[in-house]
Every structure is written in C-alpha cells, then in structure tokens.
Amino acid sequence: MELTKSNFEKEILSNDGLCIVDFWASWCMPCKMLSPVIDELAEEYPEVKFGKVNVDEQGELAAEYGIVSIPTLLFFRDGEIVNKSVGYRAKEDLAELISES
C-alpha cells in the first residue's frame, strides 16, 4: 500500500495491529533489493499491515519521522513506533523483528 501524508493517519496511526512502513526511493539500490523481501513477508504475515512511503514524493512525512537513511522500516503498534530497521536486512532478520514487535 502506498502511503501519503493524507492517508498515513488513517492507515497506520489509527490501526490497532502491527504495521510496517517502508521508507524508500526509486533510485535506491538497497531499497530495490528489500522490496521483494517485504512482498514475501507481507504474504507470510497477513495479520501485519505493510505500507510504503516514497521519500522523494512524501518528503514532509519522511522528515516528520526523522528518516535520514533509506531503506528504513518503522514498526508501528497502536500508532506508536515499537521497532526500527535501517538498511537492507535479510528476510530472517526482519521476521525476527516482526515477532519481537
């Protein structure tokens, strides 16, 4: 799901469950490597809501969450950040973060 300033509150902050937001850019090679991993995790964890924020198109949202490196994954539960991952991570590492979050 593509997230923007206008739908972020409704889709992520008002959600009771675990949400993972991928801050990325089209020119970022590690972001491109992470994208299929995120897609696989989304299939394996249907109870988790996954969303993407294009930092070039949603700079204000990226700034609001202090994104300085991409890819950055923020893990939200009940509207609060409970975990964070910066840079490319293997699927197994991210699965572990999901279980911790």
Structure description:
With 101 residues, the protein is α+β, with helices and mostly antiparallel strands. 38% of the residues lie in helices and 26% in strands. It contains four helices and four strands. The protein has a four-stranded mixed sheet with strand order 2-1-3-4.
What's the layout of helices and strands?
Layout: H1 8-13, E1 18-24, H2 29-44, E2 49-54, H3 59-64, E3 72-77, E4 80-86, H4 91-100
Parallel strand pairs: 1-2
Antiparallel strand pairs: 1-3, 3-4
Briefly say what this structure is.
38% of the residues lie in helices and 26% in strands. It contains four helices and four strands. The protein has a four-stranded mixed beta sheet with strand order 2-1-3-4.
Summary keywords:
101 residues; 4 strands; alpha+beta; single chain; four-stranded mixed beta sheet
